Amino acid sequence: MATIQEVAKYAGVSVATVSRVINTPDKVRKHTQFKVQNAIRELNYEPSVLGRSLRTSQTRLFLVLLPSISNPFYAQIINGIQNKAIESGYNILLCETDSDPAREVIFFNMIKNKLADGIISMDPTVNKERLIELSTKYPIVQCSEYAKDNTLSYVTIDSERAAYQAVKHLIKLGHKKIGLINFDKKFLYASERYRGYEKALKEFDLEIKDDWIYNTKHLNFESGQQAMRVLLNQADRPTAVFAVSDVLAVGALKELHINQLRVPEEMALFGFDNIEFSNVVYPPLTTVAQPMYDMGSISVQMLMSKIRGEEVESLVLDHHLIIRETT
Amino acid sequence: MATIQEVAKYAGVSVATVSRVINTPDKVRKHTQFKVQNAIRELNYEPSVLGRSLRTSQTRLFLVLLPSISNPFYAQIINGIQNKAIESGYNILLCETDSDPAREVIFFNMIKNKLADGIISMDPTVNKERLIELSTKYPIVQCSEYAKDNTLSYVTIDSERAAYQAVKHLIKLGHKKIGLINFDKKFLYASERYRGYEKALKEFDLEIKDDWIYNTKHLNFESGQQAMRVLLNQADRPTAVFAVSDVLAVGALKELHINQLRVPEEMALFGFDNIEFSNVVYPPLTTVAQPMYDMGSISVQMLMSKIRGEEVESLVLDHHLIIRETT
DNA sequence: TTCTTAAAAGTAATCGATTACATAATATTT
DNA sequence: AAATATTATGTAATCGATTACTTTTAAGAA
């Protein structure tokens, strides 16, 4: 790859002029511009991101932190992020933390090292203190998952209300015994969705039974299946279950199949996220749709504002229920 | 973030000495080492990747090219890549090309710009000529998908044999009318799996009927569903279908549900890839398992060898059939 | 045509590291 | 103790760009 010096020599001008042709063409004469452009084309020159970054301290790269790439929930958000980022002349670096603090440190160092211009964090397992501390120096926004802290901006949905509406929908269908498959409540969205569940049941004077609530340790199909197994094994079992994530719901659905239970007649099921799978399983899963693509693209816009040094307001986007055939 | 100059000043030595303490500690006295280490700790110094890269031309970063992050097939491979890479002191940059040549160019430029030390390509839509040309100058390996070219190394499986075995399994179960849901045959694996299908049918003197073969344009659930719809709409329809990808198979399965066909009694289904989801659908999908994790970790080892300038041999790994309940 | 002013191009410092080469400080040999 | 060999440290060039500052060139005014 040719360097700026070679281009300068070839075009018979100084390196400064070449740099100007690239960055501020107005400052150079048409004739000179032409010569330089020609040299650039001839030598197949591309400015070195490294040299430029070292000098300007910007890489036009974002870090996107997520716990695991295999969770399909993130796929769509990433799509929104990617498209918006590219449109704005940025690229993204997908960073899978696997909920491993050591890996998190590596990625945080990348921004300290100016290898990236900003961070979009979607990782619920992220070290909140460190993230907050980092956010005082570097542009950071949170997407979907967030820490309640007013220095950190976020874009998310109202999980509590969504859960409330989902459970209310089950109640309206006549269910009186409603179970919950939740994720570890140390995650904000899990505790919020729990509160929505609780609120709906209380409002209709229905029983909140600890035996009908199962908190999973992991967010995968098996955990959902395991949860449903436990719920089914009870003498007095629920007639409907709200799962705080489609991944869990899909796993639960498998357990229902294994037990030959008719869905929704013998057991109704409500998921959350509207991942692609949710419409492919049988019967198609009733769920809560988050505006995933928008969340992604908005978080990029917020990050860009931050980079420009503007104040940015956090956003709570609208969700909606998608009633399919499991309820 | 402190710079090497500040550390040098604080420790009362030259920048060269600081650099030596970090890179070749044997060359500096214990006492000096101690002073410098202390300064590094005090100032919370981390070497700038940018400065270092500019000088040494290595970033310890890999590019991983894939068409789409939402295809669960890649999740496990990436896991293998990520773990092996981190173990070797490298990080990976996940690059979603969305099969868009313009985006591909961006990522290729990153390696020309020395922003990354190597590329692992898993993208079947990649521009093969450009990849081959690039591979003469930069370390590149292909994972799973590959171009037949002896300058380009790859790690993959024997798709033709796997397809042959899968179809043979269906034949052994007594099926005489076997359909195929394939992906666009311009992709090598699609044409190889087709050949395996063809070979098995020919061997047992079974009919290869064009009406029973559907090539999808995209690799997603809907395409699989659409394919099965077409196959079902025929007067004389197959009793078993081999889909070259689980994603297609799962979509096809949905169409079977919609049509209330019993699986496998009225229609058997054989997938390919063993994605996590294949064991969650109902009934669990019979499929071909690729050693995805290994493919990922091996491709990193191959890439590292290439970076060290060693000759590397391409590898064809073993697959195996996972017989579940759709056959 | 000469003087003033604005625009264009060049020179060199800079970003943060590494490293060849030069020099200073020890260690070893005689 | 002096001469020599070895090791430790420092100096300065370098990677590839950007940009403040200076100098040159061209345009406009008198």
Just name the CATH architecture of the largest domain in chain A: 3-Layer(aba) Sandwich
Radius of gyration of chain A: 25 Å
What assembly state would you assign to the polypeptide chains in this entry? homodimer
Mean pLDDT of chain A: 93
Protein name (chains A, B): LacI family transcriptional regulator
Keywords (chains A, B): DNA-binding, Transcription, Transcription regulation
GO molecular function, one term (chains A, B): transcription cis-regulatory region binding
Organism (chains A, B): Oceanobacillus sojae
Describe the structure in your own words.
The structure is a homodimer of 327-residue chains. Chain A is an alpha/beta fold. Chain A has three domains: 44 residues, 434 Repressor (Amino-terminal Domain), CATH 1.10.260.40; 128 residues, Rossmann fold; 131 residues, Response regulator (Rossmann fold, 3-Layer(aba) Sandwich). Chain A is built from twelve helices and twelve strands. The longest helix of chain A is centred in the middle third of the chain and has 16 residues. Chain A is elongated and about 85 Å long. The interface between A and B is large, with 46 and 45 residues. The structure holds a DNA duplex (30 and 30 nucleotides).
Kindly summarize this structure in a few lines.
With 327 residues, chain A is an alpha/beta fold. The first copy, chain A, is built from 12 helices and 12 strands. Chain A binds a DNA duplex (30 and 30 nucleotides) through helix 2 and helix 4.
